[in-house]
Amino acid sequence: xxxxxxxxxxxxxxxxxxxxxxxxxxxxxxxxxxxxxxxxxxxxxxxxxxxxxxxxxxxxxxxxxxxxxxxxxxxxxxxxxxxxxxxxxxxxxxxxxxxxxxxxxxxxxxxxxxxxxxxxxxxxxxxxxxxxxxxxxxxxxxxxxxxxxxxxxxxxxxxxxxxxxxx
Length: 167
Hints:
Blueprint: H1 10-18, E1 37-38, E2 49-52, E3 62-68, E4 76-79, E5 83-89, E6 91-96, E7 99-104, E8 108-111, E9 117-121, E10 128-134, H2 136-141, E11 147-151, H3 155-161
Antiparallel strand pairs: 1-2, 2-3, 3-10, 4-11, 5-8, 5-10, 6-7, 6-9
């Protein structure tokens, strides 16, 4: 089966994935809150905490519970995959390229592919909790996953740091 180019068929590709991720004891239908796997701080590059529901038998997307401490933010980053954050609790705002949008509990935040973005907790006393859904597994399976972090900076500073790769 071709994974790209001439001869590639999405139906064949997706059909091959579904057989490889059947639910089992190692890949259960339910991952309980206490079973989330917290990613090491060195992999995140910002003050947030990311816990992945990595044992779910998903083939094309990943699910995370993300916590932003009071008054903190995520890093400025961009990636090829799409992301949706559901705000479980808290309030804040996001810089997504040249747009700044406010959000609160119950809202959904969409991050388009390859756009500089950063999420901020506007509360001085309460954390922000997100359910983060991204199609990164699909892009990784296709061999086209990519992510860049510019650290704790502005969109303009990120663009200056990576000038050859404008969004």
